[in-house]
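User: Working on a comparison across species. This one is Outer membrane protein assembly factor BamE from Desulfurivibrio alkaliphilus. Can you predict its structure so I can line it up against the others?
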Amino acid sequence: MTNTSKNRRALFAARASYCLNQPRRLLLAGAVFLLALLLAAPAAWADDEVYYTQVGMWADQGVRVMGTNYKRGTFIPVNSEVKINRVTRRAIEFTVPALSDQRIQLVNVPNHTQVNNQELQERTFGRQPVDLDRFNPEMLQFIRRGEVKPGMTRDEVIATRGYPPGHETPNLEMDQWRYWEHRFGTKLVRFEDGKVVEIIH
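Assistant: Here's the predicted structure for Outer membrane protein assembly factor BamE from Desulfurivibrio alkaliphilus:
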C-alpha cells in the first residue's frame, strides 16, 4: 500500500471519528449550558417557611403590590409574616396570614425599580424581622401605619414606605427621594443631614 493511500485512509478515519463524536460534544455543551442557567436562576423561595416583610407596602384591591409600591389599597406593614407560594419570571405570589391568607402578587416593573426579580424579592422579604429597636421609638407608630414623617432617617423611611423607584432615585444617598402615590401622582421626601425635613406632594 502506498503512502498516499495510507494517508487517505488515516484522514478518512479521523473525519469519521470526528463526526461520530460530534453529537457527544453537542450533548455535553448543552448540558453545560443548562447547568449554567440553573446556577444563574433566581432563588426559588416557594416553601412552607415563614418570611417577614422588610418594608411597608400596599396591595391594590388587596391582591397586587406593584414594584413601584403605589400607596393605595390594603396596607401591609413591615415585619408582617408571609408565606411565599410561587415565584415566576413576572411576579412573586405570597400569602399574609393576618389578612386571612389572602393571595397577593408582588409584580416587578424593572424599568422603574431598576432591579431584577431576585433583588426585589430579597429586599422585600427576609427570614428575620427588621430590628425596629434601632429606630426612634417616637417614629414606630408612624412606621407601623406607613406614614413618612419629618425627623425619620433613611432606614426608617424604607421600613415605612419601601424603596423609592430607582429610575427617579438611582442612589439612596440622594437628598431627595421620589415615591409614587398612584400611577400619576408622586411625592418627594427631602433629607438634610440624613433625616427627613420636608415632604412635598
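For your comparison, note: The chain has two domains: 1-41, 51-200.

User: Helpful, thanks.
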